[in-house]
Amino acid sequence: MPAKNPTSRTHPPSKCTHLDDLLLSSLRFLCVLCASALSFLFLRSQPNLYPAMTLPISSISFDLAEAVKYLAERDEKLKFLIAETDPFQMDQDHLQSPYEALLEAIAYQSISGKAAATIFGRVKALSPTGRAPSPQEMLKLRKQALRKAGLSNAKAVAMKDLAKKTIEGIVPALEDAQKLSDEELVKRLTSVRGIGAWTVEMFLIFRLGRPDVLPIHDLGVQKGWSITYGKKHKPKPKELLAFGERWRPYRTVASWYMWRACHRAGNAALRKIRPAKVRRKPKPKRKSAGQAARSRNRL
Question: What are the structural domains, with CATH classification, of the chain?
Fold first, then answer.
């Protein structure tokens, strides 16, 4: 195995999103919900250079071996992908709270990963602890200080809203989050400015280790699906959701392999995948001059 590059930090769908700068930056922000987990998961951007990793059994609620066996027995294409790629692997930052994970996610919105890392580093420097400012510290910080760190006004407001909702208990502590259902967490966390369902899905996967999460709007999962199943078009979210029923109750693991398929394919193959098909309504037939005249006469 090639030597690890300790300075390399990439995330699951990153190679897929190199196709489009806007998608690259937006998906990078979402994928850093658990930046430590994701960077450990994908230390190198080249295919087949990812180091082996293990998700501690005590940190997840399902049996990884059973999940992979279950999927392989029910999906021939996925069985082949599982056999051809590294095993499902993931690591988690056990020190990062939900608040900290989501705070970092906000910092990464709509900008490159490098720029976001620099800005978030400045935000952390605003706290004497060297970590991200606590909710109490965040509320005391002047908005101008956050703007000076490089945050937009919208992101500064979002971080303060996150801090406020954390203190109020809407954003739960990690111990409480582990007791809540996926649906309840989505409902709570999406009430925070700047946090969408996709962000929460990544949090459920990479921070809580939930087994049955399918991010149907994720570009990497969509394109990985197209590559795996030999499709020329990306699936519509509803189509992917329906297809993913065969993967229950281990859709998280299947999603991970879709990311792997995306990475293995290479940019040339990914560029060939077309947008999802859109069913267009047929145009109404134009009336002939005689038909139009008869219509006017009836009036």
Answer: 1-53+89-210 (1.10.340.30), 63-87+215-278 (1.10.1670.40)
Helix (H, G, I), strand (E, B) or coil at 233: strand
Helical axes 64-74 vs 76-84, angle rounded to 10°: 130
For the four alpha carbons of 27, 121, 60 and 48, in that order, the dihedral sign comes to positive
SS3 state of residue 72 = helix
Distances (CA, A) of 111 to 23, 63, 105, 152, 284: 10, 36, 11, 11, 44
218 is annotated as an active-site residue: yes
pLDDT 10s digits, 204-262? 988 888 999 999 998 889 999 999 999 999 999 999 999 999 999 999 999 999 999 98
Count CA atoms within 13 Å of residue 136 on its CB side: 1
Cβ neighbours of residue 158 closer than 8 Å, sequence gap 6 or more: 106, 192, 193, 194, 195
Quote the CA–CA distance of 109 and 23 in Å, as a whole number. 11
Q: Which are the contacts of 278, defined by CB distance < 8 A and separation ≥ 6?
A: none
